[in-house]
Amino acid sequence: MRAGSRSPRPARLLAVSGLVAAALVLSGCASDSLADQYREGSNKGFIAGDGSVTEINASARGEAIDFAGVGENGETLSSSDFTGEVLVVNFWYASCAPCRAEAADLQKLNAQFTDKGAAFLGVNVRDQAANATAFNDTYGITYPSVLDVDDGSMQLAFSGSIPPNAVPTTLVLDQQGRVAARILGQVTSPSILETLIRDTVAEGS
């Protein structure tokens, strides 16, 4: 065998090993449908959930989520700011088409529940402050968002409970700060999210 014919073989083996490792990581970290979207390489810029709703009985909920981050206006936001309230947490970013589609509905629900036992908080997973603020101006969003693009600390904080495996994902936290419900993907039926919020608020009555 010529000496020059040997060098490509290790490179090919490394490439194959890398692909296998990547496939194992994806299969272990996401549901099959989400992993399929990663592998398909559709370049749509987001991993779309299927809109499925998960509810957790109060007796089966995990620990309270402890989080802190910096908002688009430079303010510090943390779980302690929402003590005793139901908190709706929406993971989003500005160029995500489903995030834009659900924005008006989320804002309506935010206005509906203001001072009625529930608050809203966004978690922007990709944008810096200027883009997040421009999005809020365009869609009339009045609730704050934590900017999570630099360190991912918000996504990490929720990863041990019911993780936000898609963007957008909306979580409903109970008055104790535990995840009570999740909508994986776009909120296509605001009435479902409204019911989830109302039921969680009623738990504290």
From TrEMBL:
GO terms for biological process: cytochrome complex assembly. The keyword Protein biosynthesis does not apply. One of its GO terms (cellular component) is cell envelope. Its main location: other. One of its GO terms (molecular function) is antioxidant activity. Keywords: Cytochrome c-type biogenesis, Disulfide bond, Redox-active center, Signal, Signal-anchor, Transmembrane. It comes from the Bacteria. It holds the Pfam family AhpC-TSA. SUPFAM superfamilies: Thioredoxin-like. Transmembrane segments: none annotated. Residues 1-22 form the signal peptide. It is found in: Cell envelope. This is Redoxin domain-containing protein. It comes from Cryobacterium psychrophilum.
